[in-house]
Specification:
Strand order of the largest sheet: 10-11-14-15-16-17-18-19
Largest sheet: 8 strands, parallel, barrel
Helix content: 25-40%
Distance between the termini: 21 Å
Shape: elongated
Bound molecules: ligand TNX
Structural class: alpha/beta
Low-confidence stretches: 1-17
Radius of gyration: 25 Å
Mean pLDDT: 93
Number of strands: 19
Length: 520
Amino acid sequence: MKYLIILFSLVWIGSCSPAPQPLLLPELDLAESPLVPLPREIAPNANTFALHSGTSVSFDPGYASVARQLEAYLAANLKLTLGQQEEERYATGIFIRDAHDSLPANEEAYELRIGTDSILMYARSPEAAFRGLQTLKQILPLKPIDTLAAYPVWPVPGGDIKDWPQFGYRGTMLDVSRHFFTPEEVMRYIDLLAYYKINYLHLHLSDDQGWRIEIKSWPNLTKIGGKTEVGGGPGGYYTQEEFSKLVEYASERHIEIIPEIDMPGHTNAAAVAYPVLNGTGKTARPYHGTRVGFSTLATRKDTVYQFIDDVVREISAISPSSFFHIGGDESHVTRDADYKYFVERVQGILKKYDKRMIGWDEIATTGIDSTAVAQFWNREEHARQAVEKNMQVLLSPAKKAYLDMKYDSLSVHGLDWAGHIPLDSAYQWSPETYVKGIPGEHILGLEAPLWSETISNSAELEYLAFPRIIAYAELAWTPEQDRHWESFKTRLAKQQPFLDRNQVNYYRSPAIQWSQGKTP
Ligand code: TNX
């Protein structure tokens, strides 16, 4: 490796300032960094920034938390000094500043300028700075290098990155109903998602097999409905306090949690807890299997709407998201007219609590208004119907974006009703054009759902989610003209140190040249 000798004086905080030191820095190339999702513009240069203990971080008002997140990220290795320095022109260190005019108006746009003396980050918002921080984390080396300096130095490749996403909605869904996932397991997933700039986590909180969120005015939902799951395990649920903490934890990582209460179908657990809600005409019994489409609420009973009002009211009080997901899928035993009446009436309840409806694509067949979002998973004509109603569409095509589909016939977890989704197939498609007849302005974004019939813990979740979720993160962030499978493969292989360091149980896709065994 070639080395450059760079002479410069360090502004050293404290009394015992060392004399100017020659630093032996490797020549690095910013374009070689393991950047996923790929940023819009990367312009490498020959500079190298020498990060070390004592590097200062200065920030404009509003960016204290992102500065502290950078400090915490590096704390095991080096101690940064946080503070305010007014004039970056004369100073060295890291600076987080409000964006200037060279960036688009996108709320998540940021710029990184890495030079010999400083790393300047310009951000449109604290959220943008958080996205920029993830990019910086991907650039920072894992280990210090040997220099002539008496202290460890982490060399950072120089250059300029300008970046913003193509979609404002880059999400994933976790089904915590078929199997329950503890708050700790969800938080671990959130940490991993944030690194790849995912910004929405949709939680599927109720289904036939279990009800997972405390509703104080209907306590049996969790007391009875929370005790079951697929396979007969113990189930579980989030208290409202636990849910609030999850929302807060996610929001510190600039991820918004969207709650889903699936209705009028997928409601067996609620009907077991409160038979008055049941519209099937048969006695509801706890269900531990994986069939779908056999349950329905009693759509013509006022009690049911009182129930939904209570549920939406209580969840809205602890869910700051402007969205509320009502499910609406596979209501095979609800009569068509009843289904329409139901979804339309529920939109009214959501509006009362200032929430915007999202539902699976079937909701586009009803008379709801254009503020609702249809999540396309199955029927293209539903997506087009949504556009005719001037609704936004969220893309989750099962054949391409379902994280619970097996990679191939050898997959140890997963289903295959929509086919196998190996990594190359997960990456090589275009959300921009997948459904014919949907103009770009109607596409809200991309969400990759993870249904949990076959998984019940973090290791199994990670096997299905990783590395495919990294592919979806790039599909949602990086525009089509910049996406190339060969480039992605190389950058994904370089995620291995991050995944190993975090003990992620990722699937070793044969498409990727992983290094042998675990990385240090
Ligand atoms: C279909 S996708 C479902 C879920 C299942 C999933 C399994 C959708 C809206 N409904 O109830 O869990 O398939 O892949």
